[in-house]
Amino acid sequence: MEKTIAAPAREVWAAMSRPGNLELCHPFCASNPVQQWPGPESRDEVHYLSGWVYEREFRDWIEGEGYDLEIGRAGGGRSHVSWRITPIDEQHCMLGITVCPHALQDLPIVIRWIPHHFKVRPLLRRYLESVVRGFEWYVTKGEPVPRNAFGEHPWFS
Description:
Helices cover 29% and strands 34% of the residues. It is α+β, with helices and mostly antiparallel strands. The protein has one domain: Alpha-D-Glucose-1,6-Bisphosphate, Chain A, domain 4 (2-Layer Sandwich). Strands 1, 2, 3, 4, 5, 6, 7 and 8 form an eight-stranded antiparallel beta sheet that branches. A hairpin with a 2-residue loop joins strand 7 and strand 8. Helix 1 crosses helix 3. It is globular.
């Protein structure tokens, strides 16, 4: 999921690299407690409005550009997530989030393709659109994104 944001890349990076940033920028986040920050050893949790709690463990931290992390429930499967900022010009950049989900990975590819294509993928896309829009909201308006600002989500609201 990528979205052009009418803000300099450095402002988007400032929001992304701030400890506890999801409390300000994520429309489905109730809280974002931080264990360690910043850098490639960063660790935090995402407490979703739905009551789910996911742990995030950062693997790569590319100053001013993005980071890669693993996310999932404690003791559960982990999804790989990459966040990247691409400057367009002095006042615009692209924010992209790519997820390699762990859901359904225990099933043979022939079987998991149907639920992934028709259920997981559309809901994941809707989720990522809301998250990227939440960062855009915070960076361009200078105020925290309201909870469920772009509609509720069956997994995270």
